[in-house]
Amino acid sequence: MSGYLLKQADADASYCLNWSDGYLQQGERVESDLGWLIHRVVRADELSIKTQLVKPTQSVVEVSGGVPGNVYMLSARVMTTAGRALERAIVLRIAA
Hints:
Number of helices: 0
Helix content: under 10%
Structural class: mainly beta
């Protein structure tokens, strides 16, 4: 688990994972984005990913929606220049 994010239901929130903080080896970079996932969605319109962006050492996501009081897990996966698939996750709680 990489972190915890609190978000208002009626506001968008962005989160950035820095892969160089203990995940990438020296000289290694993110080569491709394998995507962000939202876990624990009861209805398809509960929480959604608005945008996702991958940089050489970071993955960024912007989410919208969510049900007040609900807790979700967001996970991001990338492929590195060394051919390794990395995955990190954060917990997202929608403020009541």
